[in-house]
């Protein structure tokens, strides 16, 4: 709810998107993922009237869960992490999307089992300058270069 005596011409935006999300004193948000959390602001004629902070924490099977990666809707399967190799040299690049912007650290590890002496080593995870838009929301794209051991 927009905490203001104003009644007309009120619009809402969020810190995640500068697009107008709704109008009127009350904004109803359909929460689908952690990226829906954040600051929502009501405006009138370009002037900020009030701000609301929506925090989300969910529990699944008795465990507090945090969805970090955004599903990439390019196929019927759920894809959160994509990797691609240009040839058979053992080098490949992985990337993923997230809306989370603060205090986020990633590490990439390989696991094939105890008997496999080969492994995968990856460089530092980097934030791409590219922003990806999915369902009217901007996501950050992270990439990492990896090499399979020989």
Instruction: Give the averaged pLDDT, no decimals.
Output: 74
Kindly provide the radius of gyration, computed on alpha-carbon positions and rounded to a whole number of angstroms.
20 Å
Low-confidence stretches: none
CATH superfamily of the largest domain: Immunoglobulins
Cα(first) to Cα(last) distance is 59 Å
Please provide the ordered H/E string of secondary-structure elements. EEEEEEEEEEE
Report the β-strand fraction as a percent range. 35-45%
Main β-sheet, in a few words? 5 strands, antiparallel
Number of helices: 0
CATH architecture of the largest domain: Sandwich
Derived from helix and strand composition plus strand pairing, the structural class reads mainly beta
Under CATH, the topology of the largest domain can be stated as: Immunoglobulin-like
What is the CATH class name of the largest domain?
Answer: Mainly Beta
Task: Describe the fold and architecture.
The chain has 150 residues and is mainly beta. The chain folds into 2 domains: 10-54, Immunoglobulins (Immunoglobulin-like, Sandwich); 63-148, Immunoglobulin-like, CATH 2.60.40. It has no helices and 11 strands. Strands 7, 8, 9, 10 and 11 form a 5-stranded antiparallel β-sheet that branches. A 4-stranded antiparallel β-sheet has the order 2-1-3-4, with no helix packed on it. A hairpin with a 2-residue loop joins strand 5 (58-60) and strand 6. The model has no long low-confidence stretch (mean pLDDT 74). Keywords: Cytokine, Disulfide bond, Glycoprotein, Immunoglobulin domain, Signal. This is Interleukin 12 subunit p40. GO terms for molecular function: cytokine activity. One of its GO terms (cellular component) is extracellular space.
